[in-house]
Design goal:
The structure holds two protein chains of two kinds. Chain A contains 14 helices and six strands. By secondary structure, chain A is mostly helical. Chain A starts with a strand and ends in a 17-residue tail after the last helix. Chain B is about 65% helix and about 5% strand. The chains are: A mainly alpha, B mainly alpha.
């Protein structure tokens, strides 16, 4: 039951697959949650239509990756699934309910006229709630969970710490920045100009939050401080914070030069670097603070059985997704959309 | 029973899965129906089959979307509310549930897009192939999810190490003893659910829309009504037979469930069939029983004097709640019999060439429209309440499988789910009914479809395939 078979470290492979699925979820759903978060600040129906239409053709990866991450965790690391989910009971339920509302509001907004304002409110509110609870759940994950006898043994509100609220707000701002970058790329005219004005504020806030989380985490967790600030790790890991600064500078420059595509991708780079930093801090634990991916792994019979299907499917989903994005590159025409004419 | 955390967790699972199962029961049948419609269209070139295909594929898309949305919740329920089960049985259940999800995604990524949006872009043969693949895919999803459920009912192919289940043979896990029966029974139930919904829509249009409809719409209403009635006439009797075989399988592996379904307390030879009764779990008797002598033994053992075990053979804490499943079982059977009656009547009317003219019969078919959904729910209550107190039969009790989440929080989340589902699926079902009432609109069926990569209509958001307005009067 060491999880090794055929010379492959299955738990490591599965940890990479699940980490990849979670990051894909953030990439795919982050910007359109961001569009929802920005929704209340954009008043006009036309502009809102453009925002919705800019995500409609490619907003389909989110459920795939979230469910893949969830059921993959269940199959490959049942112990993690069985402890983290009860520990995050209330935030997860809130997130699911928000995502249900959001998915349906998205569809029915296009099909309605009289009830459209209600769907708008549902879309914006549920996007913000989903973003916040995801961030708070992440904060709670970093804090770690009290596990006794293979079960979560902490309280129902352990997750709701000042740190988790901080990470919750951080993710709301982060997604909003992604959404803003997305709209700079997709919109034109006055809407794009507004997004250009908003982006520096969001970018700066995001950097402050990233810095805040980066300092708060090692202050609270000596083990994580040890990992980052001892020699030679300090030198080996220094590219991460240095790259964050470099990307921040590039983002600032791109906004000043009114680049349309770069802001979105540079913000994504900030997300990726933060994600890598997180992985470095928590490695090799899947249930912080002390249960590793090997301790939580299902037997190799289980991990191997599902691996076949996942390795077959992931390339197909990636290929299809890439194709959809490629077809939809470029600006969203104001007239295009759900009921409207075809656009290419 | 008090409202403790266990009962609330069971209620939450029952509520979320009951809502969820309504949509797959419908889409599993609709996918196969669409494949048949398209096959008939390719073979006969009759326009009505294409009109019906375009109409029902819209309804399929919206239902499929609702199924996906409600399904996301299910993939988290095991962890949030049944964490001990997830830990103890995750090694076995995890891959089965994951494969169900993978199958669904595989469909969405490929064939659903061609099916919903590819009508004018790919050849007829390829489009038909895509429809068939979607139909087969929904059956594969059924396969995996029922395999997981059946394994919990009749677990095989595992070994217990450190108090947790480990897969010893995946073939034995997947093809556990109750799986083939459950798979057939559920698939037929999905087909019947669809047939009666389709039949009711046809009947409604024959009853109320005839004067306003043109010939092409009338033709569509007749054809869908006729096809649904063929299904009712042949599949309803087959389902009763399949249900009987499933019952015999249950008698072999879960005799306590059968005893509770039948309201039997004492073990006896030549046991009666109870037509009516009120099983009382406290007093260990079935009050006001109306019995048909020997019939219970005859049905279940196929022997006039066969022995049937009564509930008293099991300790009180190993008995499923007979008060519930005695009646849920009878409801399911009564609906099954009514379905068969409708089907057989349709044969008589068809033979007399009165199928499209008999208004009382159309009203009967309309009333029976939701019967399949009701029967599915009643059947699930019977099998799920009937396996209590076990979650993995004979191995793990539900009480030992539940998360240690406080009852109050389970209650709050249940209330939130209740409110959300009421709003979200209320609107969804309203929209579906509106699409059904509009019926096949030939002009729309002639228009090209838009959607697919780069379009606002997307297979992974199947609801986008229906573009009718939500509100009335637009």
């Amino acid at each position: 039951m060491d999880g090794h078979s055929f010379g492959i470290d299955l738990p490591l492979l599965w940890a990479i697959i699940i980490a990849f699925a979670v990051f894909m979820y953030v990439v795919m759903d982050g910007f359109d949650l961001g569009v929802g978060i920005l929704f209340p600040f954009i008043r006009g129906k036309e502009d809102r239509d453009i925002m919705m239409n800019s995500v409609a053709p490619i907003w389909d990866g989110n459920e795939t990756w979230m469910v893949l991450g969830g059921t993959g965790l269940f199959a490959a690391f049942p112990l993690a699934y069985a402890t983290i989910l009860p520990a995050l009971y209330l935030p997860l339920i809130l997130m699911l309910i928000a995502l249900i509302f959001r998915g349906v509001a998205f569809e029915f907004r296009f099909k309605s006229t009289r009830t459209r304002p209600a769907w708008d409110v549902a879309f914006a509110t549920s996007s913000t709630i989903a973003a916040f609870v995801q961030g708070a759940a992440l904060g709670a994950f970093i804090q770690g969970f009290t596990i006794v006898d293979r079960q979560y043994a902490g309280g129902a509100f352990d997750w709701l710490s000042p740190f988790a609220i901080f990470t919750g707000l951080a993710l709301v701002i982060g997604y909003a920045a992604l959404g803003c970058g997305w709209m700079i790329m997709k919109a034109e005219g006055e809407l794009q100009a507004r997004m250009f004005r908003t982006m520096p504020v969001l970018g700066l806030l995001l950097l402050l939050f990233v810095a805040g989380v980066s300092l708060w985490t090692p202050l609270r967790h000596p083990a994580i401080a040890e990992r980052w600030f001892s020699m030679p790790n300090l030198l080996l890991l220094s590219p991460v914070p240095i790259l964050v600064l470099a990307v921040a500078w590039a983002l600032w420059r791109a906004l000043r030069l009114r680049r349309e595509v770069q802001p979105f991708f540079l913000t994504l780079c900030l997300f990726l670097l933060s994600y890598i930093g997180l992985a470095i801090s928590l490695w090799p634990n899947i249930i912080p603070p002390e249960i590793s991916i090997w301790q939580a792994a299902a037997p190799s019979e289980t991990q191997g059985f599902l691996l076949v299907g996942v390795l077959f499917l992931i390339p197909i989903i990636l290929g299809y997704t890439a194709y959809a994005y490629w077809i939809f590159r470029g600006k969203v025409p104001a007239e295009g959309g759900y009921h409207g004419t075809e656009h290419h | 029973m008090e409202l403790d955390a266990l009962l609330l967790a069971r209620l939450q699972f029952a509520f979320t899965i009951s809502f969820h199962i309504l949509f797959p029961s419908f889409t599993i049948g609709l996918a196969s129906y669409l494949a048949v419609l398209e096959g008939l269209w390719l073979k006969t070139d009759r326009r009505v089959y294409r009109d019906l295909y375009r109409f029902w594929s819209k309804i399929f898309a919206v239902s499929f979307g609702m199924g996906v949305v409600s399904g996301v919740v299910m993939s988290y329920q095991f962890g949030t509310n049944w964490s001990r089960l997830s830990d103890i049985a995750g090694n076995v259940l995890g891959p089965l549930l994951s494969y169900e999800v993978l199958t669904a995604f595989f469909l969405e990524a490929g064939f659903l897009g061609i099916m919903l949006f590819g009508w004018d872009r790919v050849g007829r043969g390829l489009h038909f192939f895509a429809t068939c693949m979607v139909a087969i895919g929904t059956l594969f999803s059924t396969f995996w999810i029922l395999s997981a459920n059946s394994w919990m009912q009749t677990p095989t192919g595992y070994e217990v190490l450190d108090g947790r289940f480990h897969p010893a043979s995946w073939l034995a896990v997947i093809f556990n003893p109750s799986f083939p029966y459950r798979l057939v029974h559920m698939t037929l139930a999905a087909y019947l659910t669809t047939a009666f919904a389709v039949g009711a829509v046809g009947a409604w249009h024959l009853l109320y829309r005839r004067s306003r409809d043109n010939a092409r719409q009338l033709d569509a209403a007749r054809v869908m009504f006729s096809m649904a009635m063929w299904m009712a006439a042949f599949v309803a009797p087959i389902q009763i037979l399949a249900g009987d075989l499933h019952g015999l399988n249950t008698l072999e592996h879960q005799p306590a469930k059968i005893a509770a379904m039948e309201g039997h307390w004492e073990t006896r030879q030549g046991a009666p069939l109870l037509l009516f009764g009120m099983p009382d779990m406290q007093r260990e008797e079935t009050k006001w029983a109306v019995e048909v002598p020997h019939l219970g033994s005859l049905i279940l053992t196929h022997d006039w004097n066969g022995t049937l075990r009564g509930l008293k053979e099991w300790p009180a804490d190993e008995r499923p709640n007979a008060s519930v499943i005695f009646w849920s079982f009878r409801l399911m059977v009564a609906i099954g019999v009514a379905m068969m009656l409708l089907g057989l009547t349709s044969l008589v009317l068809r033979w007399r060439r009165r199928l499209y003219e008999t208004r009382w019969f159309h009203t009967f078919a309309l009333v029976m429209g939701p019967s399949g959904f009701l029967a599915v729910l009643a059947g699930w209550v019977t099998t799920e309440v009937g396996r209590q107190p076990w979650v993995v039969y004979g191995q793990l009790r539900s009480a030992d499988a539940v998360s240690s989440v406080q009852a109050g929080h389970v209650a709050i989340s249940l209330a939130l789910f209740f409110a959300t589902y009421l709003i979200v699926f209320g609107v969804g079902v309203y929209y579906l009914l509106k699409l059904m009432a509009t019926g096949p609109v030939p002009q729309l069926a002639d228009q090209p479809q838009t959607g697919g990569p780069g379009q606002p209509q997307q297979p992974m958001r199947p609801i986008s395939a229906a573009q009718d307005p939500l509100e009335a009067g637009e």
